UniProtKB/TrEMBL annotation:
<comment type="similarity">
    <text>Belongs to the YfgM family.</text>
</comment>
<dbReference type="Pfam" id="PF09976">
    <property type="entry name" value="TPR_21"/>
</dbReference>
<feature type="domain" description="Ancillary SecYEG translocon subunit/Cell division coordinator CpoB TPR">
    <location>
        <begin position="1"/>
        <end position="135"/>
    </location>
</feature>
<keyword id="KW-1133">Transmembrane helix</keyword>
<dbReference type="InterPro" id="IPR026039">
    <property type="entry name" value="YfgM"/>
</dbReference>
<keyword id="KW-0812">Transmembrane</keyword>
<dbReference type="GO" id="GO:0005886">
    <property type="term" value="C:plasma membrane"/>
</dbReference>
<protein>
    <recommendedName>
        <fullName>Ancillary SecYEG translocon subunit</fullName>
    </recommendedName>
</protein>
<dbReference type="InterPro" id="IPR018704">
    <property type="entry name" value="SecYEG/CpoB_TPR"/>
</dbReference>
<keyword id="KW-0472">Membrane</keyword>
<keyword id="KW-1003">Cell membrane</keyword>
<dbReference type="InterPro" id="IPR011990">
    <property type="entry name" value="TPR-like_helical_dom_sf"/>
</dbReference>
<dbReference type="GO" id="GO:0044877">
    <property type="term" value="F:protein-containing complex binding"/>
</dbReference>
<keyword id="KW-0143">Chaperone</keyword>
Amino acid sequence: MINNYPNTGYAQLALLKDSVQEYNSGNTEISLDQFTRLKNLTNGSSGNKLLNKIASINIARINIDLLNFDEAIKVLTFLPNASQDAYVNELIGDIYLKQGNTSQSRAQYLSAASMYADEGNDVGQRLVNMKISNLK
């Protein structure tokens, strides 16, 4: 189904499921390739924005695991409205922290905390505030 009807919602959901299974089985590169395929299939104005965001975030997280921090940031910043997404800002803050850039990390975390507060997401806001408190 994935190969014969790649543009259908069912095939894209199956590809998402397979991508996650590959990652959980330790097949990081295969998972990365599949998430990239899903991202490409769901790009554009007629694409599935939710699946595209899920694929992009997973591509970024895998790149973080592979220590490809610049690629992870690139993927996240190309998401539509990335600068207005609390979770994306938090994740970029995590990347900067792993790179040892605490000032950039703090800026991203502060932005994320503000967005979480605007959304009424107390849990997200508290978690990010803990990250800010732990910065040196």
